[in-house]
Input
Amino acid sequence: MKTFNSLVSEYLGGDLSHELAEEVEFSILGSAAQDFILRTLILMRQAGQSATDFSPYHTWELSTVIPRILPGSLGGIIPPFTNPGRHAVFDEYIRKKILVPRDQQAILIDIGCGFPPLTTIDTSRNFPDWKVFGIDQHFAPFVVIDPDGHYGCFAKDGTFQYMQPRFGAPDTSNFYADHISTKNRFKTAFNKLYPMLEIADNTTGFYEKDGYKLIQNPIKEFETEQLTFHEAEIDTCHLPYAHVVRCMNVLVYFKAQDRIRMITQAGRKLQEGGIFVAGTNHGSGSYRRYVIYQKQGGHLLPIEFAFSIDVLRPLSVVPWFTIHDDDTEATLLAELAYCIRSNSDYWQQFSARIDFLFEHHDICLRNDKGFLDGPKVQRPRQEQRKLHSDLWQKTKSEGFIGGAVDALCAAGYNGFENVVGDIAIRPGGDSRPGGDSSFLPLPLT
Ligand SMILES: C[S@@+](CC[C@H](N)C(=O)[O-])C[C@H]1O[C@@H](n2cnc3c(N)ncnc32)[C@H](O)[C@@H]1O
Output
């Protein structure tokens, strides 16, 4: 019988510490989570990571979070999960790169905006003059919000669909630990509140009792004059041509052929010169990998593949978040991370600095056997995220982005630091033998 430790040993060539090995009970996980772990280990191996790169943060995610958010564990549903501030860096990118002529109405389409559509709302607030359209293939017709602000989504016939703790809630351990009773709590609240609601199709309404609130058509509550939402797929929505189309944390759920179809459809929604942003990141906005495409002369050109510096020493499995084998972006990220790690001058300096900062900020500590132990003080998740984000800002100010870019250029990639301070390459624009054919221009006709 395979164990998590035997798999780590097989893929990464070394055993985990006893404490870490015990945390993930591979045999009791469903097949979706087991496959996820195998893909993660393959990508970690491709990136040159070893067993000592695992931390208690990884094992917590693998045992607690990942098994609950994969479509394979949710009856095929793509979770509508999103967080405020998650795409702040893309808003900054747009501000720096997109100039809309004064006589034009600026337009952004957010494909797969999720629910509650917090990142779309963020963007609309950040660009008050733009028209923003949030589209999603499915908006839950009913949502129950509990007294702590956690929520559960329900279908028209009352079937439970999905639940999510409120972003920034100080303690979500009960929510996650006793998943079944949390789900039952939401179901009970729905069954109590639903008969009290005056139902009419396509209207909004709510009923509140004992701290629980049931809302019908909740998406409509978020609309403003500049922001509208449409339940549609990419190819079926009829919207004006956009200066920016964003599609974050959506394409990862689809196989290569479907992705290309969806990317092409997204490209057809663009104005000439407009950009399409697609990729994956953590709920906090960290651990991002993304492609920026631009519509030029009837084609959609991939103009950069970029990633945040934290993916080089991640305390999360998110850089390797995939749903299908051979995920093009994750594979390219692993290839680039491997290349940077192989530059021993850069890597020794960078890795030693990260170990020092992890220890100094009590994020994790490398013990005398070389494994990462958890922090001495357990902090609320929000505080933890702030510590991590400050640390990565510090490494940026210390010149580690430039060093990583130099390492990529020395290996023949066309590397650069992009306008938001992420490490980037121009896909297909490198000088290595064979080059990079992962991202080719797509005809839009
Ligand atoms: C993980 S959420 C991403 C939310 C948000 N974009 C973010 O990055 O935080 C994925 C969303 O994509 C939606 N989705 C999946 N396939 C889609 C499609 N073909 N067209 C529109 N929306 C889609 C799902 O319903 C889900 O709400």
